[in-house]
Structure to design on (150 residues):
């Protein structure tokens, strides 16, 4: 990722504006053990308290890296119960990176966030329908399949 992704201007600007990057070599003790780093690159999205909310392993091209980081930011808000803030992040993934491998998870979590914020089950069914229509082969479409019964 040093040759392709990290030097990309969009990636550089996004990281500088939105996250605090820390690079830990896979053999750096004790952090490598604490975070179970067994392969590089491993990208972990942590909250302010150091709790992990999202992880990717392996090379990501520039747009996928940004989509992954935005998804991770949304998952931090989701896990904190800040569902409306989470929705903003998931919407951004879908608006800016709809072809990313992270988009189906953003659809799923957006639907769950909308449900948790409103208690309206229609949000879950809408998420399933979008997954079925736009990402039918994704694992997230399978996970959302029970929502088709709502």
């Amino acid at each position: 990722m040093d040759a392709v992704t990290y030097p990309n201007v969009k990636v550089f600007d996004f990281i500088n504006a939105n996250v605090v990057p820390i690079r830990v070599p896979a053999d750096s003790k004790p952090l490598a053990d604490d975070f179970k780093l067994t392969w590089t690159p491993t990208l972990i999205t942590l909250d302010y308290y150091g709790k992990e909310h999202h992880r990717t392993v392996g090379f990501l091209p520039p747009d996928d890296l940004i989509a992954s980081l935005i998804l991770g930011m949304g998952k931090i808000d989701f896990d904190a119960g800040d569902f409306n803030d989470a929705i903003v992040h998931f919407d951004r993934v879908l608006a800016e990176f709809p072809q990313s491998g992270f988009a189906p998870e953003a659809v799923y979590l957006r639907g769950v966030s909308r449900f948790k914020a409103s208690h309206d089950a229609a949000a879950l069914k809408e998420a399933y329908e979008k997954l079925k229509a736009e990402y039918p082969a994704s694992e997230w479409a399978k996970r959302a399949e029970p929502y088709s019964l709502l």
Q: What stands out?
A: The chain has a mean pLDDT of 95. The two ends are 43 Å apart (CA to CA). DSSP finds seven helices and two strands in the chain. The CA atoms of residues 52 and 113 lie 19 Å apart.
